[in-house]
Amino acid sequence: MNIVCIGGGPAGLYFALLMKQQDPAHRIRVVERNRPYDTFGWGVVFSDQTLGNLQAADAPSASEILDAFNHWDDIAVNIRGHRIVSSGHGFCGIGRKRLLNILQKRCEALGVELVFETDVTSDEQYADADLIIACDGLNSRLRSKYAATYRPDVDTRRCRFVWLGTHHLFDAFTFAFEETPWGWFQAHAYRFDDTTSTFIVETPEEVWCAAGLDTMEKDEAIAFCEKLFARYLGGHKLMSNASHLRGSAQWIRFPRVVCERWVHDNGRAPVVLMGDAAHTAHFSIGSGTKLAVEDAIELARAIGRTPGDLRGALAAYEATRAIEVLRIQNAARNSTEWFEHVDRYVNLPPEQFAYSLLTRSQRISHENLRLRDRAYVETYEDWIANRAGVARAPAQAPVPPMFTPFTARDVTLKNRVVVSPMAQYSCIDGMPADYHLVHLGSRAMGGAGMVVAEMTCPSPDARITPACPGLWNVAQRDGWKRIVDFVHEHTDAKIAMQLGHAGAKGSTRVPWEGEDLPLPADNWPLISASPLQYLDGVSDWSRAMTRDDMDRVLDDFVRATRWSAEAGFDWLELHCAHGYLLSSFISPLTNLRTDEYGGSLGNRLRYPLEVFAAMRVAWPSGLPMSVRISAHDWVEGGITADDAVEIARAFKAAGADVIDCSSGQVSKKQKPVYGRMYQTPFSDRIRNEADVPTIAVGAISEADHVNSIIAAGRADLCAIARPHLANPAWTLTEAAKIGYLDLAWPKQYRAAKMQLERNLERERAAAAQSAGLSPLEQANRAMGV
Ligand SMILES: Cc1cc2nc3c(=O)[nH]c(=O)nc-3n(C[C@H](O)[C@H](O)[C@H](O)COP(=O)(O)OP(=O)(O)OC[C@H]3O[C@@H](n4cnc5c(N)ncnc54)[C@H](O)[C@@H]3O)c2cc1C
Ligand SMILES: Cc1cc2nc3c(=O)[nH]c(=O)nc-3n(C[C@H](O)[C@H](O)[C@H](O)COP(=O)(O)O)c2cc1C
After folding, report:
1. Known catalytic residue: 580?
2. Distance from CA of residue 69 to its chain's centroid?
3. For atom 2 of ligand 2, which residue has the closest CA?
4. Which of 228, 340, 525, 532 is the most exposed place for a label (fewest CB within 10 A)?
């Protein structure tokens, strides 16, 4: 085969040497516009796992790379005069020049033709090629030329950064955060050879402009950075090697590149994207070079696997790599956003700030950190527990963050797990009876700090279905009291009431008879902020509420609030999410009013706030109230995460103690991006920007998730829904799974505790043995690290 790689970066060189090694008969050229030893950049980082991949792909170059690596385990986070160090992270740094030289030498030894100082203007210059690799980097000319096929999406991010070097030798991967009158700057620094470290300085675009860096010459900008970060540089200078770039041009805004397709046919040969030309992942997760060489490994492997079927190999390459890249890009997006919004986190205590940074990508979890550095995690767990007022006895294990108490007003939950409200559609005439006694009672016995009753309706026409529970008469109040009394008498869990009105989503069948479909008969009239048909052409139309309707519904909510207090509930939640009545006022998708209840967000919040304020007055002052919101509509033109922060601020000002951060279900046009803990970023933003306690919910399914979220300060409580349907004792089970043995079980169930713990311990040991992996390797594999 005649192969031409356009671009002599890690992707092109590594692919060339792998193909030549696979079959010396191939003619392979790597065409590079720069001179052989002329490259821009300092050091790059690999994880230990990438090294293993290199070793398996080409042992000679891997051993040279290994010899040139500077290995380190520590990450140091510096903020406000604190330095917090954690270990066990396993990174390697190598100079980009050194890496390229090793690959160039290996290419030459194998007979790859290296052509330097040739700026390729078109792939058509290589009409004799059977395969052209477009590995011409971030600003790929070939990607632009064939954009109609590749369909690239380039998202230019918020921060400016500059890639500098220094002779100060950092003994840990160092993050440093410094405040200026214009905002926060951060440095990412790591040593990559015997004399040099990379030193990246980064700040949001607006801070960069306000500091005047947009108009500074290069030397002046470097002097600015040297002064700002002087305390970390040990008297050394910062150096730029981007001599070809002038002034502010060396400060880049990171472009996140995603391509829909990676293969184009130019009529003579396939032109295949590889490395940065195909995708980018923010430098804060150090994966750019890793992805480039792993692309090369995969394509060489695919071609070797199906000799004679190049098209098939290319299709397999694209399919395999696109998935892996997406996984890394998801983690990179979380990491990028964290660094773009450092100002959101700087007011966390330094200990928590560091933990939040370490777990920012949501790929490194609490248990994964424990495997890296047990002492760090245990010290941190003690710190979290102390802040929650728990001091452990010397012989006791540290208390995981999930099992620390949480207090709002006069109510203390024994831990951070909440059974999320879940409609059961199992009432007659709105009456909570035996079904709810068993359903909520058993979950209250399962170890959670609090169970939340499903959405309960303050009037018959507020129901979603005829089988929803109500609180519009004293019989229902007494039905609830029986359940609350059981929970209080037999468990140490708290119990919350969730009050809500279905609005335009009411008068439907129970889900198992047709979710969201209108009742076949006896429908009741629907009301909402504006006339609405939830399912186009299917649902009944609602009508816009009049002021009289608003007064009536407000009175209903207040009466139900009083009865909730009389029933003995510990906590009250107002349902303002998921497209129901109050949510229909908040979202611009469902509120088209032109009066003072429509238009601006302030106007749209007016009625939900009126209802909340009236309930707050009726609800005992010592008991907390939360508000569940849809923090994102997942529809263009709907509520965004920015709006959600404002919504949270407004409810906080009205007396809400906690914001319960759900999302979506407002419009059928929604396109949510699901994934584990996918709504937690909304909680993180609201908690840390609006400065109000939050509940995170959505695809939180393991103790490890809860611990990571609570420890990082992304939420104060975690609501778990579906896992609690599968297992009422989810919390007790999860404690056993993470080996936390100090949790009290209901006295009647104690016989099961030790047996469960022993069986789980055996399962863990057997799994580890059969996989032949260390615990850290297993955890890394599970998390895709
Ligand atoms: C600040 C910063 C920090 C980074 N830190 C890390 C890190 O810690 N770890 C990590 O793994 N990665 C890191 N990277 C990313 C890493 O440098 C790239 O992801 C990686 O080099 C991609 O390899 P590549 O071969 O695809 O592209 P490149 O390395 O960009 O190579 C492309 C090559 O093509 C050549 N070229 C372009 N156009 C033409 C043309 N028309 N004709 C001929 N030649 C052409 C270029 O000169 C270049 O040599 C960092 C990047 C930046 C900007
Ligand atoms: C069967 C079922 C019923 C639900 N009913 C309610 C409800 O009454 N009120 C509410 O706010 N959310 C309700 N939800 C949403 C859940 O509380 C939760 O936000 C969602 O299921 C995501 O959490 P999970 O991933 O842990 O399941 C319901 C979810 C399910 C699965």
Report:
1. yes
2. 31
3. 422
4. 525
